[in-house]
Amino acid sequence: MNTKIITIEGIDGSGKTVQFELLLRHLKEMGYTVETRSFPDYEAFFGRQVGRFLSGEDGVFATDVDQKSMALWFALDRFEAFKGWRDGEYDFLIINRYVLSNAVYQSIRDRDIGKPDLIDWVFELEYEHLGLPRPALNLFFDVNTERAGKNVDKKGFREYVGEGRDVYENDRGIQERARDMYISASERYDDVAIIRCMDGDGMKPPERIGEEVLALMRERGLFD
User: Fold this and answer.
1) Considering the domain boundaries, does residue 208 fall inside one?
2) Count of domains in the chain?
């Protein structure tokens, strides 16, 4: 039996971590075995460099690096993390940000406006050339950029960036274009699904969003 991979995707501040933890809890309560991963891994070799780019610690920001080079740093972080992974060891693997996130964010920076998007190139790089496992389902948690920005500001201290926002979080234009790109990806690829997290101007209760996730997974035949 293959491990079913579910990814948690969305713009910064969309509540991904809350839904990541809820899905983990729900699946375990249903009796499934579950492994988790989260990217970038800021404790690993390549992930630490990604963190430096996002914070500008070395004087170079991620937004200054050409899109394919930046995509490679994110991809190699995942490649390193999956070296010892064994398919079928768990029923589910839940990943907080995965290949789709890389494809989206390296396609919509200010320096890349007007260029073709990198989605197919990143998929070829990570899935075909690096051999990373493909997800059964990519869940895009959709929140507008105003609400997402307020959520980011509640995060507090983070090791790689401190108390503030990283270079992507601080650029509303990037966040708006990322949201549009995620929506576009849901129209292009059958394994990308939108979970709408807002009622009007407010967020839905986390448990209600989590219930919608389970309903969609059941509809897709990922469990009975």
Assistant:
1) yes
2) 1
Q: Is residue 224 part of a domain?
A: no
152, amino acid identity: V
Q: Is residue 163 part of a domain?
A: yes
Rounded-to-integer distance, Cα 140 and Cα 14, Å: 9
pLDDT at 156: 41
Q: Check: pTM over 0.85? Answer yes or no.
A: yes
Question: What's the DSSP call for residue 95?
Answer: E
Q: Quick check: 173 and 12 in contact, CB under 8 A?
A: no
Sequence-distant (≥ 6) Cβ neighbours of residue 133 within 8 angstroms:
3, 5, 82, 85, 87, 93
| Burial class (CB within 10 angstroms; exposed 0-12, middle 13-18, buried 19+) of 106 | buried
pLDDT at 183 over 90: yes
What is the CATH classification number for the domain harbouring 49? 3.40.50.300
Please name the residues in contact with 175: beta carbons below 8 A apart, sequence gap of 6 or more: 11, 12, 145, 148, 149, 168, 169
pLDDT in tens, 140-180: 999 988 766 665 555 544 354 444 445 555 566 788 899 99
**Phi, psi values for residue 89, rounded to 5°:** -70, -30
Element (H, E) at 35: strand 34-38
Give the tens place of pLDDT for each residue, 110-123: 787 888 889 999 99
Residue 69 domain boundaries? 4-219
- Averaged pLDDT of the chain: 89
Cα distance between residue 167 and residue 148, in whole Å: 15
Any domain includes 152 = yes
